[in-house]
Write a structure and sequence with these properties.
mainly alpha, 73% helix, 6 helices
Length: 131
């Protein structure tokens, strides 16, 4: 029981503990979105395992930038990076789905969304075919 309390204290009070919590939290968010929102076609246990460990190395690198800072800047850098990239993850998960453009690459989906916005914003007579 003492080891569990010591581990909990380490997670709450040290920079390495905060880093571990941030990486674990993002890993969990990412894995749940992989399973629920994206259709990645992972069929076997090896592909499932790769989906499980996929977000960990990239997040360790990205949040590691916060570990280079000193003091409170370290925590704030990790929080801002986590917020920005989690926002990006959720935005990507909500823009993919069962739409006619869901099988396209992200650039093509963005272009299709811009076309729809462009079509709504301007009347057909003043629009130029720029896309």
């Amino acid at each position: 029981m003492q080891k569990i309390k010591a581990f909990g204290t380490w997670l709450r009070t040290s920079k390495n503990g905060f880093f571990t919590l941030a990486v674990f939290g993002y890993w969990l968010k990412c894995y749940l979105i992989y399973l629920t929102k994206f259709t990645l076609g992972a069929t076997g246990p090896m592909q499932g395992f790769l989906l499980l460990i996929n977000p960990i190395p990239s997040w360790m690198l990205i949040l590691g930038l916060g570990m280079l800072m000193k003091g409170r800047k370290s925590y704030w850098t990790m929080l801002v990076l986590d917020f920005l990239l989690a926002t990006w993850l959720f935005a990507t998960s909500f823009t993919t789905g069962n739409s006619p453009t869901s099988s396209l690459s992200p650039c093509c989906r963005i272009r299709a969304a811009l076309r729809r916005i462009w079509a709504k914003a301007l009347p057909a007579s003043s629009r130029a075919a720029t896309f």
